[in-house]
Every structure is written in structure tokens, then in C-alpha cells.
């Protein structure tokens, strides 16, 4: 009984303290009051503790009344304030979120006329598709058939392939593609690298070394007169790269010929104009002869094969002779002049070799090869492979 009276006395003392605090206009009310009631006594039967916390922050003086009431086992609090006591200059924070709302349809339904970009549904004709991706509908459908179905991806399969091909053709940044397709940048980058891996694996057989019989059967008329045993035309090309972060990489990738940082690879095309061999990528410092000898290209040649090349491959002549293959290069100047026969030979070789220059020109229409950023450098072999596959899927380079 004495213990209950003691608790009741403490309770009355707390109420008296609160009333004095609320009625005193000189008190600073920009504090936090914590009122604890019924600490484990008989008024709180099933609860051990009960507390009330009130924050009077930024509320002007004498603009409110705070009261506590007790009726039997019930405890209540009440605040009475005048309207409009909030400070107009008080700044409120709002919740913010990233990414599209799952309940919002950003793409209009198919067939609905509006000015928004609908992904693949916005492509109405083949000209538009070629401008965006560099492919026809037939090639697009073929590549689409190589991709597996996934139910967990937030982007449909056609739009995933469209994102990939737009990156290859237009070299749009991942951020720009994320705006067009209304997804996060990391979703776009993850989609690109995922499709890159899948297509490289599925299309690895689309660049192959044809048999000698196949080359002979498809040899264009322009080759039959002077170079009937031509197996392929070879050359190296360079692609600009952003400045590497380390000194070792800069030394390895700096090209004195281009005067900047590049990567270089060897390409071989058949006389009919299709790609038959692509080496891995090397630093721009590597010579054409070194890449040819190191890439394993010479192991594919058979005795009697003719290889057309420019003047940058004298270092492979010995290996070609050891394999009983014939390296056809333009004559080298002697004392700054060429004989009449050498001029005619140079013209004849150049008129045939021009086809590999046409291949490189077609290959570099893919914007991603204009300048490789550092973040894409680890994937450069796969990117070059895909660009060569897409070039092979275009109409023939040499018309029969």
C-alpha cells in the first residue's frame, strides 16, 4: 500500500511539472519531452512499461496545450493547438526513389499513335532499323532466335537485342540508352554484356576457314586471270583507344603510325569478300608481321596457297616459303624507282587488295569501333568478333 502511494505521489509531481512547462511563456519549447507513466504498477496490467514522446520542435510559444488524463486503468494524452502555427519557411523532406514505377506504363500500347519511343515497336520499316542497328529485319530475327527466353528480365527480348545493336551501331552511352528505354544505366550495361557473351558463343562458327575447294568454286572472275590460287587477302587495321591508366599499357598500345593509343588485329577475307579469320587484338605498338606470325594464321595455309598482302608483311615471307605458300606483295622500291613491269604488278595487286580496304570501311561503320573506352577494353575481342559477324551477314562485298 505504501508503494502504491509513493508511485501516485510521483505521478502527481510529474503532471505538475508538465503544466508549469506548458504555461511558462519564457520556456524554450524547441526540445523533446518524454513522459513516462505507469511503470509496471497496477494501472498497467499486461504491459511492463508505457511511454509517450512528443516533439515540440519549431512550434511557436503559447500556440498549444498539452495534457495528460488518467481514468482508472486508462491513460490518455491530448494536444490542442491553434491552426496554421507551422512556419512557412520550414522545409520538409520528401521520399525519393530511383527507377520506373512498376505501376506506370511508360511505353504506349502497340499501335497507339504518339510521339514517345516504344522500343522495337517504334521501328516501322527496314530503313529505320538499318539506321538504328545496321541490320535488316531478316538478320535481326536471326539474331533474336539465338537469344534464350528469360522470364526474370524486366526488358523484353526484342528490346534487349535492340539495346545491344544500337550500342554497337551508334555507340550511344549506357546512360543515353537508359533514358530511351526508361531503365537504369546498370540494367542497360548488364544487358549489353550479357547479350555480347551469348552472341559470341552462338556465332563463333559464322567466321570459319573455308576449304580450298570452296574457295575455288566461289572465286570471282577478277581473280581467275592473275591470281587463281588466291586463298585469302590479309591486312591489319587499328582502332583508337582512350589513354590507358598505366605507363606499361601506354607503351604497349601507343602507335607511332597513328600517333595515338590503338589496338590492332589481323583480318583475312576470302576472294569473295567474307571474313575467314580474325586474330585477337594486340597493342598498337605490335607490327603487322609479328601479329601474323603470333596469331596462328600461317598454320591454316596449305601448300600452293597464294596470300595477297601489302608492303607491311615482309617478316612473314620466310615462314610462307617454309610452308610452300606464296606471299604476293607489291614490289619494293629500288633506288626510288620502279620498272614498267613493277608498276603494272603493283597496280594489279592493288586492284585486288582494295577489297579488304572495302571490308574495313564497312566494318568501321559500327560506331563502337571509332574509339574504345577503357571500360570496354576487356571485351574488345568479343566486340570485334560481333562486328565482323554482322559484316558477314550483310550483302556480298564483291558482286559476281
UniProtKB/TrEMBL annotation:
Residues 158-203 form the Transposase Helix-turn-helix domain. Keywords: Metal-binding. The keyword Protein biosynthesis does not apply. The keyword Iron does not apply. It comes from the Eukaryota. Its cofactor is a divalent metal cation. One of its GO terms (molecular function) is metal ion binding. Pfam families: DDE_Tnp_4, HTH_Tnp_4. Residues 234-392 form the DDE Tnp4 domain. This is THAP-type domain-containing protein.
Amino acid at each position: 500500500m505504501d508503494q502504491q502511494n509513493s508511485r501516485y505521489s510521483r505521478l502527481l509531481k510529474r503532471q505538475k511539472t508538465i503544466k508549469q512547462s506548458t504555461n511558462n511563456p519564457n520556456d524554450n519549447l524547441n526540445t523533446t519531452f518524454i513522459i513516462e507513466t505507469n511503470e509496471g504498477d497496477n494501472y498497467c496490467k499486461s504491459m511492463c512499461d508505457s511511454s509517450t514522446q512528443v516533439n515540440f520542435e519549431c512550434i511557436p510559444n503559447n500556440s498549444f496545450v498539452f495534457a495528460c488524463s488518467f481514468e482508472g486503468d486508462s491513460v490518455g494524452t491530448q494536444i490542442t493547438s491553434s491552426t496554421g502555427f507551422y512556419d512557412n519557411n520550414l522545409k520538409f523532406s520528401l521520399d525519393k526513389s530511383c527507377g520506373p514505377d512498376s505501376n506506370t506504363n511508360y511505353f504506349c500500347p502497340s499501335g497507339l499513335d504518339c510521339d514517345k519511343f516504344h522500343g522495337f515497336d517504334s521501328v516501322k520499316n527496314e530503313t529505320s532499323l538499318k539506321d538504328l542497328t545496321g541490320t535488316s529485319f531478316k538478320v535481326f530475327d536471326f539474331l533474336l532466335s539465338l537469344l534464350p527466353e528469360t522470364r526474370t528480365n524486366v526488358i523484353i527480348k526484342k528490346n534487349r537485342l535492340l539495346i545491344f545493336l544500337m550500342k554497337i551501331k551508334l555507340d550511344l552511352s549506357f546512360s543515353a540508352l537508359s533514358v530511351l528505354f526508361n531503365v537504369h544505366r546498370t540494367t542497360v550495361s548488364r544487358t549489353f554484356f550479357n547479350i555480347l557473351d551469348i552472341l559470341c558463343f552462338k556465332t563463333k562458327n559464322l567466321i570459319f576457314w573455308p576449304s580450298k575447294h570452296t574457295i575455288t568454286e566461289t572465286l570471282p572472275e577478277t581473280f581467275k586471270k592473275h591470281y587463281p590460287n588466291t586463298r585469302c587477302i590479309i591486312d591489319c587495321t587499328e582502332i583508337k583507344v582512350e589513354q590507358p591508366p598505366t605507363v606499361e599499357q601506354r607503351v604497349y598500345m601507343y602507335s607511332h603510325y597513328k600517333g595515338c593509343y590503338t589496338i590492332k588485329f589481323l583480318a583475312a577475307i576470302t576472294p569473295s569478300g567474307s571474313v575467314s579469320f580474325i586474330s585477337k587484338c594486340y597493342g598498337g605498338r605490335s607490327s603487322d608481321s609479328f601479329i601474323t606470325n603470333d596469331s596462328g594464321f600461317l598454320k591454316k595455309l596449305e601448300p600452293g596457297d597464294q596470300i595477297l598482302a601489302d608492303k607491311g608483311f615482309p617478316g612473314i615471307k620466310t615462314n610462307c616459303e617454309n610452308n610452300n605458300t606464296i606471299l604476293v606483295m607489291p614490289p619494293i622500291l629500288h633506288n626510288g624507282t620502279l620498272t614498267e613491269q613493277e608498276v603494272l604488278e603493283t597496280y594489279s595487286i592493288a586492284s585486288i587488295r582494295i577489297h579488304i580496304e572495302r571490308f574495313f570501311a564497312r566494318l568501321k561503320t559500327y560506331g563502337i569501333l571509332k574509339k574504345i573506352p577503357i571500360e570496354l577494353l576487356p571485351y574488345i575481342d568479343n566486340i570485334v568478333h560481333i562486328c565482323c559477324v554482322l559484316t558477314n551477314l550483310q550483302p556480298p562485298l564483291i558482286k559476281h
